[in-house]
Amino acid sequence: QVQLVESGGGLVQAGGSLTLSCAASGRAFSSYSMAWFRQAPGKEREFVAAIKWSLGWTRYTDSVKGRFTISRDNAKNTVFLQMNSLKPEDTAVYYCAADGPYPSQLRNDATGYDYWGQGTRVTVSS
């Protein structure tokens, strides 16, 4: 029922910024916790950031703290990932994911999320 479509990926120079968007449709967006994961070539899918369905709670992987910000606009059924000070190691396909409705925990494991987008590519050049 939940469809997720990412956009905003592209090529950016190291130190630059990029904002990813994930548009959701289907069930009530506000009842789902949302997350961003990424998968670099030859690597396992990695948790990046998540935002809970309530209270604005967020969590981030240590490597992006202070650089990335996850946010959501429930009126527009959209979650964002603002990425600043990008590094080549941020290069990956970025996926948005949804967990819900009304999950009690804000998960950082891919298996905890029920719905996934198709991914958007981010390439950070040095």
Please characterize this protein's 3D structure.
It contains no helices and eleven strands. It is mainly β and 126 residues long. It is globular and about 40 Å long.
Provide a concise account of the structure shown.
The protein is mainly β.
The residue fraction in helices comes out at under 10%
Tally the helices: what do you get? Answer: 0
Low-pLDDT segments, ≥5 res: none
How confident overall, as mean pLDDT?
Answer: 95
In total, the number of strands is 11
Q: Supply the helix-strand structural class.
A: mainly beta
Report the sheet-strand fraction. Answer: over 45%
Described by strand count, sense and barrel closure, the largest sheet is: 7 strands, mixed
- What is the end-to-end distance? 40 Å
What's the layout of helices and strands?
Layout: E1 3-7, E2 10-13, E3 18-25, E4 33-39, E5 46-51, E6 58-60, E7 68-73, E8 78-83, E9 92-99, E10 115-116, E11 120-125
Which labels suit this protein?
126 residues; 4-stranded antiparallel β-sheet; mainly beta; 7-stranded mixed β-sheet; single chain
